[in-house]
Structure formats: C-alpha cells, structure tokens
Amino acid sequence: MIRTLMMVAGAAVLLTACGERPQVIQYKQGSYQGKPDTPAYSNAPFDGDKAAWEKTLATRNQNQNEYKRIR
Amino acid sequence: MARMKFLCDAERCIECNGCVTACKQEHEIPWGVNRRRVVTINDGVPGERSISVACMHCSDAPCMAVCPVDCFYKTEEGIVLHDKDLCIGCGYCFYACPFGAPQFPQAGAFGVRGKMDKCTFCSGGPEKDMSDAEFKKYGRNRLAEGKLPACAEMCSTKALLAGDGDVLADIYRERVVTRGKGGEVWGWATAYARPDTQKPGAGPAPAAPPAPAPAPGGKT
Asked: Chain A closest CA to B158's CA: distance in Å?
C-alpha cells in the first residue's frame, strides 16, 4: 500500500512539468474589435493615390540622410 | 513600401529632448504623458549614451497579444495603433511592452488610470483622417499629410530616424561605414526580429546592419 502510494507520488512529481503550457501569448490575426481605419493616403491631398503618397514619404525619408542632402 | 520603423543612433543622440518637445507640441499631449522620452545610460560617466524611446511599432507586438479587449490593430505600413473608444485602461499593454511605451493619463481622483495613450507614428487612429475627433484622441495625422513623425523630422543631429525600414537601414549603414563605429541599432532586435529568433537560446536578430571594420581615418 505504502509502496503504491510512493509510486503514485513519485510519478506525480516526475510528470508535473508535463502539464505546463507555453505562457507566451501570440496575437491572433483579425481579432481587432474596434472601429475600422482608413489608409493614410485615402484623403486629401492624396485622394487614394498610394503611389504619390509613397513617393512623398520616400522623398522626406531621404531628407534624413545628410550625406545625400549636402552632396 | 516596406514597413515603418524608428531607428535611434546612440552615437548621435545628444539628449537635447527636442524629439520629446516636438511630440508634445505636435499632438498637444497633456501633462504627465510622454509618448517619447530620452533615456541616458551611464549618465555622467565617460562613454554615456542617450537613446530616444517611444513605441517601436513592433513586428510581433506584445501589447496586441495581451490586450483583453482587442483594441489594437496594425496598419498596412506596420504601425501599431489602438482604438481609445474600446480601451479600458487596464494596463496589461504597459506590462507587456519591452519599451515602456503605453502611457496612462490620470483620469480622476486617487490616481485612476485613463485610456492608454502612446506614439501613433504620427498617423492618428481609427477616426476620420485629420478630423477634430482624431486630433483630440490620437493627435495629429502627419502621415496622411505626407509627412514623417515630428520627432524624427525635428531631430537636430538626425539621431532619430523614422520611415521605411529599408531606407533607414541604408542610411544607417552608410553612416556606420563612414564613421567606422557604432553599428549596433538599439531596440531593433527586440522590436523587429522574427518571432523564431526571439526564443531563448536563439541567436541575435539579423535586422540590424552589421558593424563594419573601422574605416580608414575613422575614429575608434
């Protein structure tokens, strides 16, 4: 009887970690519950012209590179 | 377009707090809330470094994963935004964020927390672009005006860069090759590394440009 109990207790100790689950939560795509947002280029002055918006941002992006700006 | 990122060059930041001021002024941020702040490491010790810190708009943002009301979303440019109408101010995102980005204005007596406020990459939120409602809740929408975040555009030494991640990496690479040192990009491995490289024991993320050998004539 005691031996059986000790075996059960031993097995419980050895198998404790088997019930552990990963605790890192992963974001599930599409679970956003809030209001929809429109793309940044959907209004004036770009009025949906994504290419023009990207070009404007790319120009400003390069303005941060003083090696290009001052040459 | 690739995704939007921030990059802070610790070799250039002079702790002027111009980015903090620009952000506060641009969005009329209330007292007690700092969407951006400058952190100095080894302050007063030779070799001290300063870094401008705000929401990095992580690739795999932990705030999005832990939010109990799922008020976070990501734009097609990779900017992490949230809906303040849905936020309950629980503070889980603050505990999850590796950069301490979420801010909570005091909303009443006894230090009651208000709805979370954080850097929006100057791109507003889920309200009509450039409307009063958007400005009051999230601040100015500079991206919709074809501008980059005010903090980066105001940076006097161009230590803080914002925009397309590929372009930033190119600018930074050229800089590092020219000066011959300081190739480590603070925060990029945490914010933009692939999730599989963030597991314990995994190597460093390949996001940061490698440090080159000192250039001839460059200081070491």
From this structure: 7
How close A65 comes to chain B (CA, Å)?
6
| Full set of structural domains in chain B with CATH | 4-197 (3.30.70.20)
- pLDDT score of B104: 93
pLDDT value of residue B195: 55
Whole-number Å distance between alpha carbons of A20 and B133: 46
Q: Is the peptide bond before A45 cis (omega within 30 degrees of 0)?
A: yes
Asked if the Cβ–Cβ distance from A53 to B168 is below 8 Å, we say: no
pTM of the complete model: 0.83
* Pairing status of strand B160-164 against strand B49-53: unpaired
Residues with pLDDT less than 50, chain B: 201-220
Q: How high is the pLDDT of residue B68? A: 95
Asked casually if ipTM beats, i.e. exceeds, 0.85, the reply is no
Give backbone dihedrals phi and psi of B30, rounded to 5 degrees, phi first.
-70, 165
**Tokens of residue B96, six digits:** 């999850």
For B77, residues 6+ apart whose C-beta sits below 8 A from its C-beta are: A40, B1, B3, B4, B123, B143
